[in-house]
Amino acid sequence: MQTHFSDFQLKDPHIDHANGILRKCVHCGFCTATCPTYVLGGDENDSPRGRIYLIKNMLEKGEAATPETVKHIDRCLSCLACMTTCPSGVNYMHLVDHARTHIEQTYKRPLIDRMQRNVLAAIMPRPVLFRLALVAAKLASPFKSVIEALGGKRFTAMLNILPQKLEAPMAFGRAGIYPAAQKQKGRVALLRGCVQSVLDPNINAATIRLLTRLGYEVVVTDNNACCGSVTHHMGKEAPALASAKHMIDQWSEAEVDHIIITTSGCGVTIKDYGHMLRLDPAYADLAKVISAKARDISEFLAQIEIPQAQMNLRVAYHAPCTLQHGQQLKTQAQALLRRAGFDVREVPEGHLCCGSAGTYNMMQPDISKQLLARKLANINATNPQIIATGNIGCMMQIGSATKIPILHTVELLDWATGGPKPEKVSQI
Ligand code: SF4
Ligand code: SF4
User: Fold this and answer.
1) Mutation test of ligand 2: which of 32, 40, 53, 77 has the most ligand atoms closer than 8 Å to its C-beta?
2) Mutate-to-test residue for ligand 1 from 56, 86, 325, highest number of ligand atoms within 8 A of CB
3) Global pTM value
4) What is the tens place of the pLDDT at every residue in 67-84?
5) Is residue 41 part of a domain?
6) Of the four listed, 179, 190, 297, 417, which is most buried by Cβ atoms within 10 Å?
7) Angle of helix 365-380 versus helix 153-160 axis, rounded to 10
8) Looking at the 3D structure of the chain, how many domains does it have?
9) What residues make up the domain containing 210?
């Protein structure tokens, strides 16, 4: 694609980087076939190629984003299916991240939109505040229809994805050192995470049990740690980079072999720290080291030997976009579940997003609902007893619309290899 940035514009390293990405796109349109928003609506501006043009025009003009451009960029899920499909290696992720930052810095959103984003950005990365917000939201649940009638569709979307039951805080999994239960093979850090640690602390507990049983010492450095992913995807660069630096400081000090992540959305961001902080002289090198040590739990377990088992249960595996497209980890979780004896069913149209996508299901409820309905129909077609996945956002989104128990892959692996039976599958 031809671009027309001035020499002055190209002196900005962010624009220079975006220019390199834009020039790789050859407009072939292969990416449109796997883009969920294009598949649903058929609007070129809601396809990767269309968005790339919109971003190019926005950046070349160097002016404030227009409402039309913002609308189509906001509708992008950042699922990165387009990056899996693109034959030219266009790094859409870096391009749309930069576009979101530009929008955040130049565009004044309508008041309600601004308020909702600011509230989510302030609350979600802080586990204590997030728990309080969940309690308040539960209390508001009976008034859902009134809120919707008053025009609060986005607020009812938040209420719709609340878990049935708010998990009690768990001591196991909080900051500390969890020693290996056998001869130590290594020392790893586990990202405790913000949203996941509140919504489902069983995931971290299962991870610690499994890793220590396999001979790894596990370090949890911080009870209130957010990797910066939530704010990063809203284009709020300052808080995102502050969170990234905080985690880098903690993990550098912990001197671990690897950093284990059980939320694939966070994994994409942490693996990108090296890029996000490339222009920061104090953190550029450290960030690269941390990104190189980051491993999704399925990626890490696939590289070590875990025991075989015979679970004989039908499991539909939902591949999170941030795992299959964002981290290109397409087979590891399924292979681990099969090794544990589960009858793993691949979900048709598995490349399509479930509509969760971080805060997307709250910001774009109409598109999100359509994707969820499509995902559920595909999952149900496999007749599963259990749904497995690797991202808390997908778990909440899919779990809000089905009675089939949905668990993180690591919870099933822990159970299969000697851990307790998860409460969610007590009826099976
Ligand atoms: S597939 Fe890649 S090169 Fe082709 S239009 Fe999409 S982003 Fe551009
Ligand atoms: S990230 Fe997903 S929604 Fe966004 S353009 Fe790419 S395929 Fe479409």
Assistant:
1) 77
2) 86
3) 0.95
4) 999 999 999 999 999 999
5) yes
6) 297
7) 30
8) 4
9) 176-301
